[in-house]
Description:
Elements: H1 12-35, H2 43-76, H3 88-117, H4 140-175, H5 179-184, H6 198-218
Helix pairs in contact: 1-2, 2-3, 3-4, 3-6, 4-6
Keywords: Cell membrane, Electron transport, Heme, Iron, Membrane, Metal-binding, Transmembrane, Transmembrane helix, Transport
Transmembrane segments: 16-34, 46-72, 92-110, 152-174, 194-216
Family: Belongs to the cytochrome b561 family.
Amino acid sequence: MARHHGQHGYGPAMRFLHWLVAALIVAVALRGLTMVRLPASTEAEAAGVFAAYSVHKTAGLAALALILLRLVARLLTSGPGPLHPERKVELFLARLTHLTLWGAMILLPLSGWLRHASAPGIAPILWPFGQHLPGIPADESFSRLMQTFHRLAGWVLAAALALHLLGTLKHLIVDRDTTMARMTTGRGPYAPPAGGAWIPALAALGLWMLVALVALRTAPTPEPDPFEAIPEGFAPLSDPAPETAPPAASIPPPDAVPAPDDAAEPSEPIDMPPPPAD
């Protein structure tokens, strides 16, 4: 595509990609907000939850592919400049919002992809390219970090999108200019591009660095494996022998019982002197 400075509006390809990506982002976001609330008390409901996660992941990667395609088209062409370049603060906030939104549209699905690649156990991506990424091993700590960043990036996306919509309403209701028409019909007054975009770019970069730092500080750590603390060569003690009852006293056989005294053989008679005579 040729680079055209000072256009009156966006071309058909850019407008189509803009609205297609917007619709896909809204659909993926709604799927993500509802799938975490689905019941999973039965086997059929659990299968439905896994299917919802698979659809969410697949649609998110489709959105990422379209966003990257739109980014390439945006870099190869130049859109129209601001209609009110004299409003410095408003221009800075608008560019900061747009750049933050661009970062969210890329980092949100990318972090979800990295989270899946480091823990690809359930809810596969519905495509034929496998579930892993080169250089991304299965790592529970990294997976939880990407999950935390993914959640924070979702909030940043929601905030940036809300500011983007508020700005659009301001142009429609307050300013009553043709900013919205540039993205719907491609028509608008001539406006040359304005410089100074590197300042909001640095601010957006700082914002995303802050989000990454918060994710590092708040990501949950995995539970330690108790078997990793066992030293090498350790053998568990053998089970103690069960206690046995003391041996019962032996009872002699009947023939070993001594005969009573009266049954014993009579001993020799003892001579007793006769009693004295009267």
